[in-house]
Amino acid sequence: MSARFKGTHRGVPLQRIYYMAEQLKFELVTPQRKVVSEEVDEIIATGTLGEFGVLPGHAPFLTSLKIGELSYKKGGAAYHLAVNAGYFEVVNDVVTVLVDSSERAEEIDLERAKRAQARAEEGLKSVSQEDKEYKEMEFALQRALIRMQVAAKAAR
Hints:
This protein is an alpha+beta fold. It has 2 helices and 14 strands; from the N terminus they run ββββββββββββββαα. The chain has helices spanning 110-126, 132-154, and strands spanning 2-5, 8-9, 12-13, 16-19, 24-29, 34-40, 42-47, 50-54, 61-65, 68-74, 77-83, 86-91, 94-99, 102-104. It has a 5-stranded mixed beta sheet with strand order 6-5-13-12-9, with no helix packed on it. The protein has a 5-stranded antiparallel beta sheet with strand order 8-7-10-11-14, with helices on one face.
């Protein structure tokens, strides 16, 4: 939110007009590439403490993201992405998202995601919960399920 002053009396503003940005500047970056760099209306993401949304004028904050779906709206259209763990920051109507990996819904190979799901499920059956590989298999299963969920939205 920004302020603009209209006149002063002895250095005191007579009128303060507040206006909010109409859109957010959204940047989503992975170590390999810049996935999104656009002006958007709204962003919804999955943080480690739950799902949250951001609109123009949102208070500054920084949070961590877990494996999940990130969606944004622009001009009435909704866009969906599968994201791996990372960070989400809002400052002055600029949203910066840094994640390990991300795919747009239309980029996801559904058959590959199904194969990854099958491998992860088999892997979970073959290792005990105490084994360090068990957690890795759980994350792989989560990623596969999210990728399939997001890919289904591209088919609509």
